[in-house]
Sequence to fold (93 residues):
Amino acid sequence: MALGGGQERHDRQPQGVEYDVRDRTAQLVVTVAVILLTAAFVFVVALLAGTAAGKLARMDGATYPTALTRAATSFAAVITLATVIATALRALL
Fold:
């Protein structure tokens, strides 16, 4: 944008090597934060699914070992499903 007297105004500073490194570092930090938050969310969902499966098994009259087995199976299934989905998305992106 031209200002009076033929001077141009630059909104951003010229990008040098150090700015590129900062941009890459910021992008890496955001990527790591997203991955960790997603992993935490998946873990919480898996715990909730396992807890619900165990509770439903107990309400159905299952013994404690059977209920624990169903809860563990449900937990493992959610983690496995999340891994499969992440692998498929990684292949697409």
The mean pLDDT is 87.
